[in-house]
Write a structure and sequence with these properties.
Layout: H1 11-15, H2 18-38, H3 41-63, H4 66-90, H5 94-118, H6 124-128, H7 131-153, H8 158-182, E1 187-189, E2 193-197, H9 198-219, H10 225-253, H11 268-290
Antiparallel strand pairs: 1-2
Helix pairs in contact: 2-8, 3-4, 3-7, 4-7, 5-7, 5-10, 5-11, 7-11, 8-9, 9-10, 10-11
Length: 294
Amino acid sequence: MTSSFQLGTDGGQRWRDLGMRMTTAAVAIPLVIIGLLWLPISIIIAIFGLTMAIGAHEWSRLVEAGAAGHVMLIFVTLALTAFGVKLILVSSPVASIVFAVGVAMGLLASLAGVWMVCTAATEVPINLIRGALGWFFGAFVFIGALAALASIGSGVGGGQRILMFFVLIWLVDVGGYAAGRLIGGFKLAPRVSPRKTWAGAIAGVAAAAVAAGIYGGLFNTDADGWVFALAGAWLAMVSIFGDLTVSLLKRRAGLAETGVLFPGHGGVLDRLDGLVFAAPWFALIALWLFFWNV
């Protein structure tokens, strides 16, 4: 979510990429929604895993993992995807344990990302997260995201639950982008991503909290709407830290974007950075709120 929470600029410079962004979103979002509502969860996880393999390729470039680490991270991502799909198809009791371990790895990775962003001024995280350590960090991130989505998607209505999570993260991005462009203001983390603003961050958190609260109030009887609102706000904040973590890695690598897969949006990590960091937390919150089998 590299363009969220940005300060506005003037004239054509300010909106030059808006048309391309809207075109890409207009094509991609309906396809994602249709897929999540109609495809079997095994196919959904397989598609997401293949997408994450591209993200692993981008991550390896950011952390200078080397040729061997590059190939290995992609292989681990694909292998876990295949294993996760198999566990979903055979409904093995081992699945709950495997998914729980994977989610725990993702939670640790997200906390490491928070630490990196909060200590960015010291330059310590930038110097540490490279090579082998950067590889392991990426492995925890991708394993956590895949395990979380597989656990969320297990059972009846899995695609709808994943869609709800995606919508929350999209709202963080849209709310942040709009407020950042229109309001601007004080910078959120100038040492990490100079164009992101507090106005964008607050708007993104508010959008996710309101949407989650409305959903909880209208469609769920197990918890009050305000509980859902708090959960939505927490997921939004984790998503923002995920965005900032990837921005920090890009700054160290000297890259403006992680890739060029999505015109106007950048690479896979540019689009899914907040999502992969927030997914394990959504799985944990879902278990608490809904008592889903993960």
